[in-house]
Automatic annotation (TrEMBL):
This is Transcriptional regulator, AsnC family. Transmembrane segments: none annotated. Residues 6-67 form the HTH asnC-type domain. It comes from the Bacteria. CDD domains: HTH_ARSR (cd00090). Coiled coil: none annotated. Pfam families: AsnC_trans_reg (PF01037), HTH_24 (PF13412). GO terms for cellular component: cytosol. It comes from Lysobacter enzymogenes. The lineage of its organism: Bacteria, Pseudomonadati, Pseudomonadota, Gammaproteobacteria, Lysobacterales. InterPro entries: ArsR-like_HTH, AsnC-type_HTH_dom, Dimeric_a/b-barrel, Tscrpt_reg_AsnC-like, Tscrpt_reg_AsnC/Lrp_C, WH-like_DNA-bd_sf, WH_DNA-bd_sf.
Length: 161
């Protein structure tokens, strides 16, 4: 699928809604210099084109039980397409896996995992290995503190694509 052509208004709008998707069309219109109805049309077009995939609430970990965050590097035994597809499905369906990247280097996948505690993480990893025999090994780093968390992609606002 070809990338949607974004003009400077689209780019500005995307940066604004990544920062706060709850802003009203009126508030966004003030910042983008378009009418509220034009903002609504653009947002609908960006959603329909798949540029905006979803809206999500960002929670404060301290308010919801202070989960422990783990950075996990996975190595697989074989990189056969069907085995990788099975592992990708498992990772995508696992609620505790916040992010999963297929990467180059020593590891094949790098994961961001959030669980209530180390016991829950250990149980999750035992299940991962039991249900995915192609996982050869994994290494884990425990996050000591949260410095920055986000999913925003900086969209260059100058120039058209």
């Amino acid at each position: 699928m070809a990338a949607m052509k974004l003009d400077r208004f689209d780019r500005r709008l995307l940066n604004l809604v990544q920062d706060d998707a709850d802003q009203t069309a009126e508030r966004l219109a003030e910042q983008v210099a378009l009418s509220p109805s034009a903002i609504q049309r653009r947002l609908r077009r960006l959603r329909e084109a798949g540029v905006i995939q979803r809206h999500a609430a960002v929670l404060d970990p301290r308010q919801v039980g202070k989960p422990t965050f783990f950075l996990v590097s996975l190595q697989v035994e074989r990189e056969r397409p069907e085995l990788l597809a099975q592992l990708r499905r498992w990772l995508a369906e696992c609620a505790q896996v916040q992010q999963a990247f297929y990467v180059t280097g020593e590891a094949d996948f790098v994961l961001v995992v959030a669980t209530p505690d180390t016991e829950a993480f250990d149980a999750l990893m035992l299940r991962l290995v039991a249900e995915n025999p192609n996982v050869r090994r994994f290494t884990t780093n425990v996050a000591l503190s949260l410095v920055k968390r986000g999913l925003a992609i900086a969209v260059a606002e100058d120039g058209d694509e």
